Amino acid sequence: MAESPLSKTEGLISVAIVGMGYVGLPTALGLHADGARVLGLDTSADRRESILAGEPDLVEADLARLALARRDNRFDLTGDPARLAEADAVIICVPTPLDRYLTPDLGPLRSACRSVVEHTRPGQTLILTSTSYVGTTREMLAEPLRKRGLVLGEDVFVAFSPERIDPGVAEHTQQSTPRVVGGCTPACSDHARRVLEKLTPLVHEVSSAETAELTKLYENSFRAVNIALANEFAGICSTLELDPIEVTRAAATKPYGFMSFYPGPGVGGHCIPCDPHYLLWQLREAHGDAPLISQAMTSIAHRPGQVADRVTATLSAAGRGVAGARIVVAGVTYKPGVRDLRESSALEIIERLAAGGAKVEYHDPLVPELKLGGRSFQSNPDPHGTDFDLVLIHTVHPGQSYDWIEHCPLVLDATYTFDAATHRELV
Hints:
- The protein is of the alpha/beta class and 427 residues long.
- The protein has helices at residues 24-33, 45-52, 60-69, 107-119, 136-147, 186-196, 209-239, 244-251, 275-285, 291-317, 345-355; strands at 14-18, 37-41, 75-78, 89-92, 125-128, 157-160, 179-183, 203-206, 326-330, 359-363, 369-372, 375-378, 390-393, 411-413, 425-426.
- It has two domains: 5-207, NAD(P)-binding Rossmann-like Domain (Rossmann fold); 302-426, NAD(P)-binding Rossmann-like Domain (Rossmann fold, 3-Layer(aba) Sandwich), CATH 3.40.50.720.
- 36% of the residues lie in helices and 15% in strands.
- The radius of gyration is 23 Å and the shape is globular.
- The N and C termini lie far apart (62 Å).
- Keywords: NAD, Oxidoreductase.
């Protein structure tokens, strides 16, 4: 039986992070801040250079951590997977996207796991954090390691612990956010827990890796269902000429049995639009079904089209067709305060309006350029409301001025919370 370095001393742990993206980099910085020696593995030379230049999209606290880490020889970046053998623990944080048919694209995850398995040495703790279908940890890590002759829970320690990074939200720190962990054996859980406690003291152990995997899918399916319901209630409120935000806030005064979810222009980012499809895909393979989740994901997929249709209807009610209309979209990232465009509903909305003949521009200080459908869009740095027929408020970034919106003749608010324009209409 190989003795893990974790069983000797907690202060000398070294950790390798596979994938230095929006999950991997904050994880690496959190571990480094706790005193660990950190090796960040990323196959993209551009990404590594961006990190070393201090350019990634991070909250202020992590930018400060990065500034310190860049000057410390305990923080290193590499593109060589063979160096994973240097670490006492390896945490896998690669993306798990969907293809155009909403089918899991497992290529990046399979490739990362193959590299980890190939370079695993006895005594290491391996933790998968990437969201995937139930059974991924055993299929991509545990079984290949067994075939190498390594005994789980003795020679090597394998677990799943879903990431809970909330990009752009400084209040949701890793230290204050509990982590769920499930190992392939009790010893695997124990070793993984001791690694994760370097990020947060709040670690909740479950009985298996599969339980931890399904936990993450449940979390984001829960959010998807409730966001779909919030958008549906916004439509109900529109029919009854009521304010959905006022209704939601009133319902939220109940101290039990209700959780606030708010309507919006669509759901973006890597989690909610994608993760439930991993569960639905697996259920289809097993001839199972989850009709409520399926309907919620269909509703979410239709939301950007509904917003585009509302723009058309608003212009029509003002005696203006969408063809030739001058439209500006305020904010195009998927959430306030981040530069992340992944799955942003603004992209589909812009494409739909442009396909209808509208002259579409956008204003987003965090995104200077967009490329959609072979076309390039430049952010208008200083828009004037009088230059446009309609402004669609999609994402409002903190610390930015939107005074110009008040002067636009038609204001359509897809955030439902922009009350600075007195004549706004709600989607």
